[in-house]
């Protein structure tokens, strides 16, 4: 489809220097320097190219089927707010025929998630979309605040990531929805490619640029319509469209390794703006050697515990770099999909329960020695 610049008769009469004109429509004043290619363009052309690129991504990947129910993972942050807004707009403009629902996970982080969920509730009214909220408290009987108090802040992203993935799937399943879209953008994807290269994590590297991910046997597929959208352009779009979003960072520690990869990429982007897309394209075109793992190796990999919970409550996710993932299995404890006998969430929960008892023993400083132990034992409940 050829690009037709949107008309703006109000601004046409004004005299603008040729050097200041939008490089796309050549009639309005350029207001924005596009982060993706440094093109100087006007606001209306920016809206148009930004939305059209997302539409092209959706069409090329055949993301939606007519009549499909789609849940937008809505955190209230800039990415998912823009995603909900643009998806609704494109659905109306191009008649995708999808039914959009906002799905939010309440991790239980006071002063952060409660405020961002208030934004999602406003978005629900502004965009006239149904909203479903699923909480860690209901699913796991723990909030992130309690997890951090028990296991420390160092592993907070690991706990939160594992629980959130599962919570989004469970929330979608509850609504009878089999497609969850998230606001992961080009920067997130390029960072993930770099992180997997730095870690030598070949199994994850192979999957890290997929726009759709789904475990075989799983009813829920996930997709990333912002796969090629730059973070900076999403922020610009939200700003110029005056969208209502929540911009505070999570109160707990950011993932340190991702932070380092992000900084490296930001520095590269200064010299070469296209590097974000280039990294994604490199990942897409990477052809890995066929795996040589024997059946025995695969079996022992699937039996290996996916999470190591240390005695101080911190956790380490095992990275399986030699063998492939085994899809389609179910966790023996919760029945949720897992490539291991016991899923990561259940192992983390078990570690937390053990640590809860230990922490309550150690916390009481009002008495010492045997009295402290007796008092703690009196309070313990299993
Ligand atoms: N609490 C949540 N509830 C529902 N979806 C979530 C939640 N947290 C994250 N997501 C989904 O996962 C995507 C990536 O989240 P992440 O926190 O890694 O990035 P982000 O850049 O902060 O995203 P956002 O700006 O949308 O908050 C989000 O865009 C959203 O679609």
Automatic annotation (TrEMBL):
One of its GO terms (cellular component) is mitochondrion. ATP binds at residues 73-75, 79, 105, 183, 188. SUPFAM superfamilies: Adenine nucleotide alpha hydrolases-like. InterPro entries: CTU1-like_ATP-bd, CTU1_C, Ncs6/Tuc1/Ctu1, Rossmann-like_a/b/a_fold, TilS/TtcA_N, tRNA_thiolation_TtcA_Ctu1, UPF0021_CS. Keywords: ATP-binding, Cytoplasm, Nucleotide-binding, RNA-binding, Transferase, tRNA processing, tRNA-binding. The keyword Cytoplasm applies. Transmembrane segments: none annotated. The keyword Heme does not apply. It is found in: Cytoplasm. GO terms for biological process: protein urmylation; tRNA wobble position uridine thiolation. Its EC number is 2.7.7.-. Residues 69-255 form the tRNA(Ile)-lysidine/2-thiocytidine synthase N-terminal domain. GO terms for molecular function: ATP binding; nucleotidyltransferase activity; tRNA binding. It holds the Pfam family ATP_bind_3. Pathway: tRNA modification; 5-methoxycarbonylmethyl-2-thiouridine-tRNA biosynthesis. Residues 329-359 form the Cytoplasmic tRNA 2-thiolation protein 1 C-terminal domain. It is an enzyme of class 2 (transferase). Plays a central role in 2-thiolation of mcm(5)S(2)U at tRNA wobble positions of tRNA(Lys), tRNA(Glu) and tRNA(Gln). Directly binds tRNAs and probably acts by catalyzing adenylation of tRNAs, an intermediate required for 2-thiolation. It is unclear whether it acts as a sulfurtransferase that transfers sulfur from thiocarboxylated URM1 onto the uridine of tRNAs at wobble position. Prior mcm(5) tRNA modification by the elongator complex is required for 2-thiolation. May also be involved in protein urmylation. Belongs to the TtcA family. CTU1/NCS6/ATPBD3 subfamily. PANTHER family: ATPASES OF THE PP SUPERFAMILY-RELATED, CYTOPLASMIC TRNA 2-THIOLATION PROTEIN 1. This is Cytoplasmic tRNA 2-thiolation protein 1. It comes from Zygotorulaspora mrakii. The gene is NCS6.
């Amino acid at each position: 489809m050829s690009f037709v610049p949107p008309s703006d008769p109000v601004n046409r009469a004004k005299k603008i220097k040729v050097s200041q004109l939008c490089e796309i429509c050549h009639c309005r004043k350029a207001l924005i320097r596009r982060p993706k290619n440094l093109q100087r363009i006007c606001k209306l052309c920016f809206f148009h190219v930004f939305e059209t690129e997302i539409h092209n991504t959706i069409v090329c990947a055949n993301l939606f089927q007519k009549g499909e129910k789609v849940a937008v993972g809505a955190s209230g942050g800039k990415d998912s707010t823009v995603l909900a807004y643009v998806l609704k707009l494109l659905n109306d403009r191009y008649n995708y025929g999808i039914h959009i629902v906002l799905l939010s996970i309440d991790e239980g982080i006071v002063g952060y998630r409660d405020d961002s969920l208030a934004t999602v509730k406003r978005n629900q009214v502004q965009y006239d979309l149904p909203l479903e909220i699923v909480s860690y408290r209901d699913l796991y009987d723990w909030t992130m605040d309690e997890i951090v108090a028990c296991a420390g802040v160092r592993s907070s992203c690991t706990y939160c990531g594992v629980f959130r993935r599962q919570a989004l799937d469970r929330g979608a399943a509850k609504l009878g929805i089999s497609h969850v879209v998230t606001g992961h953008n080009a920067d997130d994807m390029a960072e993930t490619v770099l992180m997997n290269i730095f870690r030598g994590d070949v199994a994850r590297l192979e999957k890290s640029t997929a726009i759709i991910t789904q475990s075989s046997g799983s009813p829920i597929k996930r997709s990333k319509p912002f796969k090629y959208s730059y973070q900076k352009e999403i922020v610009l779009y939200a700003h110029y469209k005056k969208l209502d979003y929540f911009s505070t960072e999570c109160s707990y520690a950011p993932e340190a390794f991702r932070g380092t990869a992000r900084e490296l990429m930001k520095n590269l982007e200064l010299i070469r703006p296209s590097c974000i897309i280039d990294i994604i394209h490199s990942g897409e075109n990477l052809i890995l050697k066929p795996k040589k793992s024997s059946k025995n190796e695969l079996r022992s990999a699937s039996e290996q515990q996916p999470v190591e919970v240390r005695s101080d409550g911190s956790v380490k996710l095992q990275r399986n770099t030699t063998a492939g993932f085994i899809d389609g299995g179910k966790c023996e404890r919760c029945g949720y999909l897992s490539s291991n006998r016991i899923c990561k969430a259940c192992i983390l929960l078990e570690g937390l329960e053990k640590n809860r008892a230990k922490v309550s023993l150690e916390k009481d400083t009002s008495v010492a020695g045997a009295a402290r132990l007796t008092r703690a034992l009196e309070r313990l409940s299993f």
